[in-house]
Amino acid sequence: MAARRGLHGVLVDDLGRRIVHHEIAPGAQLPLDELGEQYGVSRTVVRETMRVLEAKGLIVARQNVGTRVLADDAWHALDVDVLRWRLSGPDAKDARQDLLELRSAVEPTASRLAALRRNDATAERLVAASQRMRDALEPEDVDAFTAADVDFHATLFEAAGNPLIAELLSLVGAALDDRIQVVASHGISAVAVDLHCELAAAVAAGDADQAARTAGDLIVRSYEDSL
């Protein structure tokens, strides 16, 4: 999630997380004045927060009725904040499964397109990012590994040359953020590093079929590592 500043950001993150984690139940009314007092913020900040949460499908505000928390099926599932909140809550296992299915539908195609539309610059960036991931393996440098991983996937989606696919990068970013916690807890997976290197090599070689297969293997491995 993009870093937010100030009291407005704190309130959005905290209330959004509490709603998605069902700490505030569907159907519950949100008393705006009480929220302002609880968080020590102005009514303007509370109203701005409600607008953000309503745009994400978490609440609905009606004049003379009040502000009510909505059930899960109203949430905007492709909103990156909603996904990140799900990944950090009691619904994390289901969220990872949902994300696995989405990534399985998109990333092999993105990898295939990247190989078909390869150019020297993007191929070099992919190979370099995968090498940085390998360099981070032995010293268990999680920060360096994570930075290289983010760069790898951003380059891959850019190389696909499809703006609609590129729009989904933020959701993959949520998966990568989730994986940071996995890596921090369990260490860097040598198998995942190998698969990134194989994918980079396939794209660089223009081997679309191999790129798609390796991307699929990598997604499954990432999911298994998160369990």
From TrEMBL:
One of its GO terms (molecular function) is DNA-binding transcription factor activity. Keywords: DNA-binding, Transcription, Transcription regulation. Residues 5-72 form the HTH gntR-type domain. PROSITE patterns: HTH_GNTR (PS50949). InterPro entries: GntR_C, TF_FadR/GntR_C, Tscrpt_reg_HTH_GntR, WH-like_DNA-bd_sf, WH_DNA-bd_sf. The keyword Transcription regulation applies. The keyword Transmembrane helix does not apply. CDD domains: WHTH_GntR. This is HTH gntR-type domain-containing protein. It comes from Microbacterium maritypicum MF109.
